[in-house]
Q: What sequence folds into this?
């Protein structure tokens, strides 16, 4: 079962579509009734704008082979059937940070579970 916070590997095609390489993504939400879920790119290159570093303390299980970052500006809709394996799981606090950054990228206010509604969050800023 794929759940929010899991880091899974999926095949990403090369630009010529002739082959692919398995790359990690952070699962942002569980798959819907059709098996689709949102995934955020995970990279070993930290030079991207709003990339968030994933430290060992951010993982509740598994490990990443290299220093890694999530890229809130690279989000994909993916089919759960293409997941090849699970690499790790991030802590709920890290997932919340990644979701906040995603909302910041798309320009919307956010109120995550347990927080005041978005309109109140704006007033409190």
A:
């Amino acid at each position: 079962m794929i759940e929010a916070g899991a880091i899974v590997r999926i095949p990403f095609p090369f630009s010529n579509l002739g082959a692919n390489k398995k790359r990690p993504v952070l699962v942002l939400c569980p798959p819907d009734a059709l098996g689709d879920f949102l995934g955020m790119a995970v990279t070993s290159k930290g030079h991207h704008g709003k990339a968030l570093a994933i430290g060992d303390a951010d993982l509740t299980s598994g490990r990443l082979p290299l220093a890694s970052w999530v890229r809130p500006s690279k989000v994909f809709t993916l089919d759960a059937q293409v997941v090849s394996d699970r690499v790790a799981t991030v802590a709920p606090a890290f997932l919340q940070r990644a979701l906040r950054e995603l909302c910041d990228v798309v320009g919307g206010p956010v109120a995550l579970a347990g927080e005041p509604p978005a309109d109140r969050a704006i007033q409190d800023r």
